[in-house]
Amino acid sequence: MWSHLKRSPANLTKHSLDQLTALVRTRLKRMQYRPRLVEGLIAKSGLDFQPP
Predict the structure, then answer these.
(1) Which whole number is the average pLDDT over 15-36?
(2) Per-residue pLDDT averaged across 16-20, rounded?
(3) Contact 31, 1 (CB under 8 A)
(4) Residue 11, by phi and psi: left (phi above 0), alpha (psi -120 to 50) or beta?
(5) In this structure, are residues 29 and 23 in contact, taking their beta carbons and an 8 Å threshold?
(6) Is pLDDT at 46 greater than 70 in this prediction?
(7) Cα–Cα dist 27/6, whole Å
(8) pLDDT score of 31
(9) CA–CA separation, 12 vs 34, rounded Å?
(10) CB–CB of 4/31 below 8 Å?
């Protein structure tokens, strides 16, 4: 998920810590409304998230 979060035309190194925090929160919020994206990222990881 982190690599997907980092994708942006904006240069993340020019922001303050508060700006980066707000930016990451905004991007995570956008991802929250795209369940297929999250499912795809989990599937690509190869991890099993089913309870034992």
Answers:
(1) 84
(2) 83
(3) yes
(4) beta
(5) no
(6) yes
(7) 9
(8) 81
(9) 23
(10) yes
Q: What does the pLDDT average to over 47-51?
A: 73
Structure tokens at 2: 């982190």
CA 50 to chain centroid, in Å, comes to: 21
Confidence of residue 50 (pLDDT cuts 50, 70, 90): confident
Percent of the chain with pLDDT strictly greater than 70 = 77
- CB-based contact 5:28 (threshold 8 Å): yes
Distance CA 8, CA 2 (A): 12
Rounded to whole angstroms, how far apart are CA atoms 5 and 23? Answer: 9
Residue reference for tokens 């990222």: 41
